[in-house]
Design brief:
By secondary structure, this protein is mainly alpha-helical. The protein is built from twelve helices and two strands; from the N terminus they run H-H-E-E-H-H-H-H-H-H-H-H-H-H.
């Protein structure tokens, strides 16, 4: 019998042994506490994700919202199913394919060299916080169309959203506050750039100027997607 709880200390510390057990012994696993099924094999997940006839998610549902009800639904396209998901994803996906990423390469390489030189000059440095995180969030800002002046704050927000309190299942006040601040900053940026969309760049420019199914995305959806880019691009 597999003992699986997505919020257990064991899963947070080293999940891979339990994941292997799930795949081998209970690939479609039910947990009564959450009244939820967990799928662990690639093909099963793939088939379920593409089964729009029998399986549908609520618009905006996220794992935290579904399991512990401590996070709000998301309005970003990654929390939607087809057919809503497909045109929203297609709208900005070109910015994140290899060709789009290569356009960011000169800026990223320059920053990587500058950060490394700083660390060499000091004789020390943290490769995660001072190097990797700053490079990653720079890429996220450039791709999303967010000003680079927000980079350090973005790292704090993303770390806050991912904050975990040992022994507590699901999100907490630290994560909720960080997520709230990040979203409303993205919303203010969206509203400001809506006045002059031709000045926007990256995903923000695309979402403000290119309709989806004949309509421009509203500010809340744009801000939610910018939050997604900030988290996914820098985490």
């Amino acid at each position: 019998m597999v003992a699986y709880d997505p919020y257990s200390e064991e899963i947070m510390t080293d999940p891979y042994r339990i994941y292997e057990q799930l795949r081998n012994e209970s690939p479609v696993h039910y947990i009564e506490e959450y009244d939820c099924w967990f799928l662990s094999r690639f093909e099963t997940v793939w088939d379920a994700a593409n089964d729009s006839t029998h399986l549908r998610t609520m618009k905006g549902t996220t794992p935290g919202h579904l399991l512990t009800h401590d996070t709000p639904p998301s309005m970003s396209f990654n929390a939607y199913d087809p057919p809503e998901h497909t045109p929203m994803r297609a709208q900005i996906k070109q910015l994140f394919v290899p060709a789009g990423a290569r356009a960011l390469r000169p800026t990223i390489e320059k920053l990587a060299k500058e950060l490394l030189d700083e660390m060499i000059e000091r004789g020390e440095g943290d490769l995660v916080d001072e190097y990797g995180a700053r490079i990653a969030v720079t890429g996220a800002c450039l791709a999303g169309g967010m000003p680079l002046s927000i980079r350090d704050q973005a790292i704090e927000w993303v770390n806050g959203v991912m904050h975990r309190r040992p022994g507590h299942k699901g999100g907490n006040d630290v994560g909720a506050q960080a997520g709230k601040e990040m979203f409303f900053w993205c919303l203010e940026l969206t509203k400001e750039m809506r006045k002059n969309p031709e000045k926007a760049t990256g995903a923000l420019h695309t979402m403000l100027t290119e309709p989806v199914n004949g309509k421009l995305l509203d500010d809340f959806v744009v801000a939610s997607t910018l939050s997604l880019v900030m988290i996914g691009g820098s985490d």
